[in-house]
Protein 1
Amino acid sequence: MTLSKKELDALKRQIEARCAALQAELHADADKARGETYADLAGGVADEGDESVADLMADIDNAELTRDLAELRALEAALERIADGSYGACIDCGLEIGFERLKVEPGALRCIECQRVHEKTFAHPERPRL
C-alpha cells in the first residue's frame, strides 16, 4: 500500500508549514544572538557562578539552534524525496513507511522495524562516569 495523493498532499503541507516555522524561529534566534553579548548574559559584575550560568545559557541556545537546523535539513530532504517520488520508502529495506509514522515524524527515513535495528546497532555504549 503506497501513500495516496491525499495523504502525500497532507504530509507535504505539514512539512512546508513546519519548515516555515523553523525558518522563522532560526531567524529570530539568530537576531537575538547577534544582539546579546556575553556581558548581558553574565551581568555587569560577573562572578564564577554568573559566568557558569552565562556559559550554560549560551550552550543551550547553541544546542537549540543545532537541533532546529537539523530538523529543517531533514524536512527539506523529505520535500526533495516527495519531488523525486521516493518519499515514504524505507532507505534500508525499501518497504513503505506507514502514513501514521510519517504524520508524527515527516522526515523519517526508515520504517519502524528498521529504525529500531538502526538505533540498537548505532547506540553509544554507556560510558563509566564518576
Protein 2
Amino acid sequence: MNESELKEKFISVFEKNIGIILKISRAFTKTTHDREDLINDIVLELWKAYPSFKGDSKVSTWIYRISLNVSMNYKRNKKTSLLFFSDSNQFDTFTWLQDEEDNEQTNLLYECIDELTEFNKALIILYLDGNSHDEISTITGISKTNVGTRISRIKEQIKKIAHTKK
C-alpha cells in the first residue's frame, strides 16, 4: 500500500472514531489549547502506529489504548506539538471542541471526572463510551472483575463530587 492509500485509509478510520479521541482529550485537559495539543499528539501517535496495526483487536480498542497512553503521559511530557493535519482543510479541531462543550450536564460530568486519578479517568471514559467490562479489561490490562469494582467506586465518587458542586 502506498503512502497516499495509507493516509486515505487512516483518515477514514480517524473520522469514524474521532469521538473517542475528543472524549479522552476533554477528560485529561482543562483548556481548549491543551486539548488541541493533546489531540494532535494522539493523532500523531496513531499515525505512527497505524502501519503496524494488524487488526488483532477492534480498531476502537487500538485507538483507546493509544489515546489513553498518550493522555496519561501528556502532563508529564508536556511538549510543543505540531499540527498533524495543518495542510488539510478536512479537520477543524476547534469546531469539534466547541460542539462537545455545549451541554451544561456534560460540563458538570467532565468537572467531576477531572478530579479523578488518571487511571480512573480512563476507566470511566471507557465505561461512559459504552465499552463492556471485557473490552475495558482488554484495553487497560486489569481483570474484568476489577473493572466492575472500580467502576462502581468511581460512580460513587462522581456522585459525591457532583453533589458538592451543586
Protein 3
Amino acid sequence: MTVVSQVILQADDELRYPSNGELNSITDFFKSGEMRVAIAEILTENEKKIVEQSSRQLWQQRPDFIAVGGNAYGQKQRAQCLRDYSWYLRLVTYGILAGDRDPIESIGLVGAREMYNSLGVPMPGMVAAMRCMKEVSLSLLGAAEAAIAEPYFDYLIQGMDSVV
C-alpha cells in the first residue's frame, strides 16, 4: 500500500483529517517519485545483466549449488533459479515504485518458506542469492538512487533470512 493509501485509510479509520506530518509524508512521496521511477527503469532495463552477474557471483561463492547434487545442478534447476532472481528483482521494483515494502511482503515473502521447503531449496542459498542481486543492482545506481533502493533489497533479504 502506498504512503497516500496508508494516510487516507488511517485518517478515515480514525474519522479525522490527515495531520500535517502525514501530509508532509505524502509530499515527500511525490517529491521522490521521479527518482523512484528512474530506479525502477534502470533495474528493469538491466534485469538480464543483473540476473546474469548475480548468478555468476553466487556460483563463484557457492560452487556446490551448481555441482552434481546441488540445488542448481542441471539446466532446468539453474533456469528456475534465474527465474526466481528475476521475480524477486521485479518485486523490489514494485516496492520502490510504491514507496512501500508491502508488495515484497505480500507477494514475495508470504509463503516463501513453504514453497522453497517443498522444492528442497535451502533458504540460506536464497538469502545469499538475494545479497548478490542487491550488490549488482546497487552498483548500477548512483548514490542517491542506491540509498532509496537499498532498504527494499534489505527488507527482502531480512524477510528470507527470518524464514530459515
